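Page 47, continued from p. 46.
Same chain as before, 139 aa.
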Amino acid sequence: GGVVSRESRSQPGSQEMHRHKQRRITKERLEKFYSKDYFVYANIYGQIYGEKRPLTTLTTCPVPDRISYHDAIKGTFVPTTIGAAFGPSWSTHWFKVVIDIPDEWHGKEVHLLWDTGAEGLIWINGQPVQGLTGGDGDD
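Result:
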């Protein structure tokens, strides 16, 4: 018998592999904690953004250059879908988003989750109300 340290029993590099595996497992668990797809009924994402509703309508109007709000609303808007691709880079696209908010949400905070992966500006009734910077850093 005798005392043997853990390091002397380990294969070379096995501690580093163990740390890497633990880091990967921890990262995967944390990602599920805020995921839009996994365990939404119990994770932080689901607690912040509980109930969901689809957009009523989503239309777009591509324009050749930067134009004013008043010119944009006169444009021809065509239906589009979430996930559609727009381009080329640096092109300008105006969107009209119509949302029907259920009566039972009255008095609650409501969020529109919108990420084009690009910069944008929200207008309501001709007034700019919020700038956006898209992308989650993975692009």
